[in-house]
């Protein structure tokens, strides 16, 4: 296997992130110049690793939920009998996008209370659109000759969906999920305003105590996490595309 | 046996297939030939219910196909789609195994069947089983498409321009192979093509289609000898009728016994060659007669220029 600059950068990024989350004090000298008046350079009010983990978890669960819903909707509207639901489904997934996340939080807190709930709902709503649209494209671009062959071989509609259409749409669906995850990792930070456990806590603590070091380390951890996950998911997509000999999708 | 009675299919206002009736006998190869857009594919696809007729009846061995659930019907009928339609996310072996898997065959039986078919279509199992369709040439893809259609040993195979993507030399080889495969499997085949030469080469019977109608359905000899319609004559190429007739006769069948009083001919043709090839050879060599040789290369008789000319005369 040839080791590229990219691979090394990824490895270094991953090691740095892990090291920082496990032993943040070791990085104190780096962040010290960003503090003043003897404020702590490293966030200590909560365990960084635990915060990152729950941040990650809420993103994963919310994205899984939006994937489930958006892919189901995408499948529904690409069936002959479901085509009439396309405009309605588009409208629904678009609502999620047009509402600013802060507004979603504000609206859902009275309904589900403080904590992870509102953030989950906001991330879920935000993930629907990219996944839905990509599922749609993915299923629609399955060549007509291939679906026709699946029918001609005697596959039932369900067999055609699970054995032919979805596997062939998979890379495209993964593109949608990847976009949703990356947006969600960033968006999840604002969840901390309504008491969701996550890396937003660090940033907010920095804002409240006017400690730039907190803001920077919170931001860096979120950004690094997003970049690494994006990268890993992209690599997974590429390997599938390569194996299938599908035309690499240029919509990056 | 496939029977079509008054089969019609409308798309909007237009009858794309218009009142077609014909019977394909068991073990026969019927070739549907016609120009692009004449309704060949639509006709073919009604047999396995990929398209439902607007009116008319289609039955297989006396059973109305519309009474059989579509997916069950299709598992019993091989289908080679125009432009192969292989599953890009599945290996060659998995593509071929599609129908046997749907039918729930045990694994080892499927594996055996897959290598058998690869061999039959001259694709080395070791090399091709694990490859993905995009790694194959157009001709190899089409052969895999044919293998997939034959996989579950169907009694009926529908083929929509199965050799469309092949160059002329590989194409005629593929046609010979198909003939041999059919003889071996005894399947009833309906094949669609727009190539009249292919129709004459393969068809036990030929249906000539034009604008949704079958102008004539009959043996190749009938087509030439008694075209039902000037358009049939035009399509079959009236000027080439004689050569097409010669192409239908094997030299072995036309051979006459040797005449002991004359020296044996210096050139020969194999018994399996057509009289058309024999004529070409006579013209080329300038001889008046050729020896006809059997499989073992031994002469079994002779064909003379006069007898070849007689076979090509308008019947
Ligand atoms: N689903 C459809 N909807 C509307 N029109 C159709 C449909 N399928 C086929 N047609 C029309 O029916 C006519 C016959 O089509 P068909 O595919 O049977 O032709 P063909 O003889 O197989 O042609 P080719 O040799 O080009 O494959 C064409 O004019 C085509 O446009
Ligand atoms: Mg066609």
From TrEMBL, chain A:
InterPro entries: ABC_transp_perm/SBD (IPR051204), MetI-like (IPR000515), MetI-like_sf (IPR035906). It holds the Pfam family BPD_transp_1. Keywords: Membrane, Transmembrane, Transmembrane helix, Transport. The chain crosses the membrane at residues 54-77, 179-208, 214-236. It is a multi-pass membrane protein. It is found in: Cell membrane. This is ABC transporter permease.
UniProtKB/TrEMBL annotation, chain B:
The lineage of its organism: Bacteria, Pseudomonadati, Pseudomonadota, Alphaproteobacteria, Hyphomicrobiales. It holds the Pfam family ABC_tran. This is ABC transporter ATP-binding protein. Belongs to the ABC transporter superfamily. Keywords: ATP-binding, CBS domain, Nucleotide-binding, Transport. It comes from the Bacteria. Residues 261-315 form the CBS domain. SMART domains: AAA. GO terms for molecular function: ATP binding. Residues 2-236 form the ABC transporter domain. It comes from Alsobacter ponti.
